[in-house]
Amino acid sequence: MVTRTYVIIVAAGTGTRFGGNMPKQFMQLAGKPVLCHTIDAIRGAIPTSEILLVLSEQGREIWHELCDEYGYDSPRIVLGGDTRSQSVNNALVLIDDADAAVLIHDGARPLVSCGLIQRVAEVISRPEIEGVVPVIPLTNALAARCPDGTVLPVDRSAYCAVQTPQAFRAGLLKDAYSKADGEAMADDAAIFSTYAQRPIASVEGEINNIKITNAIDLKIAEITLANFQF
Ligand code: CTP
Ligand code: MG
What we know:
It is a single chain. Strands 1, 4, 5, 6, 7, 10, 11 and 12 form an 8-stranded mixed β-sheet that branches. A two-stranded antiparallel ribbon has the order 2-3. It has helices spanning about 35-45, 55-70, 85-90, 115-125, 170-180, 190-195, 215-225, and strands at about 5-10, 30, 30-35, 50-55, 75-80, 100-105, 130-135, 145, 150-155, 160, 165-170, 200-205. About 35% of the residues lie in helices and about 20% in strands. The chain is an alpha/beta fold. The structure holds cytidine-5'-triphosphate (CTP) and magnesium ion. Cytidine-5'-triphosphate binds near residues 15, 25, 82, 106 and 107.
């Protein structure tokens, strides 16, 4: 039985692809920092959850200043690591309850809807489910890269794009992370699949739930917030 819901928000990255003089999660989006949108979405969707906010040492200073400036009440802060996987693990080790549900969400996905968060939380609350991720269809065509620089087209319909929040039974995810022993992977589903070797359920993700990655994504997020209600 799931006893408690934790949400790990990973926001300890440096935003290399985005560029700029401040990591993207602290930048302004429609009047408040990107990270405030993300936290507000989680708080609104699952008010009873315990949030662990993962920040780098430098990021923590910026964040404290922003919280002062905006009168914002920060969730509990955990120090991140050099990779996303290490950042997640630093928060996971603080969760003792093996039966708890843990959602992991990118701080850089501020447009996540209340509905998507609740859908993921509902599915992981089912006793027979151990892991669940939101997925969306691919829009570009897909091909394998060959060592000689050529590409080999593959059947796109066999694949999907995976978003966050991703949710898992805490004990199983912790075991998977300890087996991974510091190895960095793209997301928690990859760690869970490789090291827990359990099936992962899926729910429908959302095209609006973009990850702010390149500078243009922040502009897209502004326009989306100004024009759509979700
Ligand atoms: N993240 C993290 N700790 C890291 C690296 C990433 O908590 N060591 C977080 C980021 O802050 C972000 C999420 O993981 O919210 C997804 O990562 P990504 O979009 O790759 O962000 P960055 O790593 O910051 O960006 P880049 O890869 O361009 O440097
Ligand atoms: Mg990164």
